[in-house]
Amino acid sequence: MRRPAAEVTLQVRVTGGVQGVGFREAMRAEALRLGVRGWVRNRRDGSVEAVVQGPRAAIAVLTAWIQHGPPAARVSGVVCDAVPGEHDRAYAGFERLPSA
Q1: Phi then psi for 63, rounded to 5 degrees?
Q2: 100 lies in some domain
Q3: Which position among 42, 43, 56, 89 bears the catalytic label?
Q4: Among residues 2, 3, 13, 24, which one is catalytic?
Q5: How far is residue 32's CA from residue 93's CA, in Å, rounded to a whole number?
Q6: Is 40 buried (19+), middle (13-18) or exposed (0-12) by CB count in 10 A?
Q7: Each residue's pLDDT tens digit in the chain (100 positions)?
Protein backbone atom coordinates (compact mmCIF):
# COMPACT_ATOMS: atom_id res chain seq x y z
CA MET A 1 0.00 0.00 0.00
CA ARG A 2 1.43 3.38 -1.03
CA ARG A 3 1.05 6.52 1.06
CA PRO A 4 -0.08 9.81 -0.51
CA ALA A 5 2.61 12.51 -0.41
CA ALA A 6 0.34 14.84 1.62
CA GLU A 7 0.30 12.42 4.54
CA VAL A 8 2.46 12.37 7.63
CA THR A 9 3.49 9.53 9.95
CA LEU A 10 4.56 10.19 13.55
CA GLN A 11 5.57 8.13 16.54
CA VAL A 12 3.96 9.47 19.72
CA ARG A 13 4.83 8.79 23.37
CA VAL A 14 2.38 9.95 26.05
CA THR A 15 3.34 10.04 29.74
CA GLY A 16 1.43 10.65 32.96
CA GLY A 17 -1.64 8.86 34.27
CA VAL A 18 -2.48 7.35 30.91
CA GLN A 19 -2.84 3.63 31.62
CA GLY A 20 -5.96 2.09 33.14
CA VAL A 21 -8.09 5.10 32.16
CA GLY A 22 -9.32 4.04 28.70
CA PHE A 23 -6.69 6.07 26.87
CA ARG A 24 -5.96 3.50 24.14
CA GLU A 25 -9.59 2.83 23.26
CA ALA A 26 -10.49 6.53 23.35
CA MET A 27 -7.49 7.33 21.13
CA ARG A 28 -8.46 4.56 18.72
CA ALA A 29 -12.02 5.93 18.49
CA GLU A 30 -10.74 9.48 17.91
CA ALA A 31 -8.27 8.29 15.26
CA LEU A 32 -10.97 6.35 13.41
CA ARG A 33 -13.30 9.37 13.59
CA LEU A 34 -10.57 11.50 11.99
CA GLY A 35 -9.55 8.93 9.38
CA VAL A 36 -6.12 8.42 10.97
CA ARG A 37 -4.43 5.03 10.64
CA GLY A 38 -1.79 3.32 12.79
CA TRP A 39 -1.71 1.71 16.20
CA VAL A 40 -1.57 2.37 19.96
CA ARG A 41 -0.21 0.29 22.87
CA ASN A 42 0.77 0.50 26.54
CA ARG A 43 4.45 0.43 27.47
CA ARG A 44 5.86 -1.27 30.56
CA ASP A 45 7.16 2.09 31.81
CA GLY A 46 3.58 3.36 32.22
CA SER A 47 3.47 5.40 29.03
CA VAL A 48 1.35 4.95 25.93
CA GLU A 49 3.03 4.68 22.53
CA ALA A 50 1.41 5.14 19.13
CA VAL A 51 2.19 5.47 15.46
CA VAL A 52 -0.28 7.75 13.69
CA GLN A 53 -0.59 8.27 9.95
CA GLY A 54 -2.88 10.43 7.88
CA PRO A 55 -3.47 13.88 6.42
CA ARG A 56 -1.59 16.66 8.22
CA ALA A 57 -4.81 18.36 9.34
CA ALA A 58 -6.19 15.15 10.89
CA ILE A 59 -2.86 14.41 12.61
CA ALA A 60 -2.85 17.95 14.04
CA VAL A 61 -6.35 17.46 15.48
CA LEU A 62 -5.43 14.05 16.93
CA THR A 63 -2.18 15.29 18.50
CA ALA A 64 -4.11 18.19 20.07
CA TRP A 65 -6.58 15.65 21.52
CA ILE A 66 -3.67 13.55 22.85
CA GLN A 67 -2.52 16.54 24.94
CA HIS A 68 -5.44 15.88 27.32
CA GLY A 69 -6.82 12.45 26.28
CA PRO A 70 -10.04 11.02 27.73
CA PRO A 71 -11.58 12.56 30.90
CA ALA A 72 -9.85 10.21 33.41
CA ALA A 73 -6.37 10.65 31.88
CA ARG A 74 -3.75 12.93 33.40
CA VAL A 75 -1.34 13.67 30.56
CA SER A 76 1.97 15.13 31.74
CA GLY A 77 3.94 14.91 28.50
CA VAL A 78 3.64 14.19 24.79
CA VAL A 79 6.59 13.65 22.46
CA CYS A 80 6.05 13.38 18.70
CA ASP A 81 8.97 12.23 16.55
CA ALA A 82 9.66 11.06 13.05
CA VAL A 83 8.69 7.43 12.81
CA PRO A 84 11.62 4.97 13.00
CA GLY A 85 12.41 2.75 10.02
CA GLU A 86 10.60 -0.40 11.12
CA HIS A 87 7.33 1.54 11.54
CA ASP A 88 7.69 3.68 8.39
CA ARG A 89 5.15 1.91 6.21
CA ALA A 90 1.57 2.36 5.07
CA TYR A 91 -1.12 1.43 7.63
CA ALA A 92 -4.73 0.36 7.17
CA GLY A 93 -7.13 1.01 10.04
CA PHE A 94 -6.15 1.75 13.62
CA GLU A 95 -5.22 -1.09 15.98
CA ARG A 96 -4.70 -1.61 19.70
CA LEU A 97 -1.50 -3.65 19.98
CA PRO A 98 -0.39 -5.77 22.96
CA SER A 99 1.71 -4.01 25.59
CA ALA A 100 5.43 -3.80 24.95
Answers
A1: -65, -30
A2: no
A3: 42
A4: 24
A5: 7
A6: buried
A7: 555 568 999 999 999 999 999 999 999 999 999 999 999 999 999 999 999 999 999 999 999 999 999 999 999 999 999 887 778 889 999 999 999 9
In this structure, are strands 94-96 and 37-42 parallel, antiparallel, or unpaired?
parallel
CA separation for the pair 85, 83 (Å, rounded): 7
How many structural domains does the chain have?
Answer: 1
Sign of CA dihedral 78, 65, 37, 46: positive
98 lies in a domain? Answer: no
At 84, which CATH number?
3.30.70.100
Whether 42 is catalytic is yes
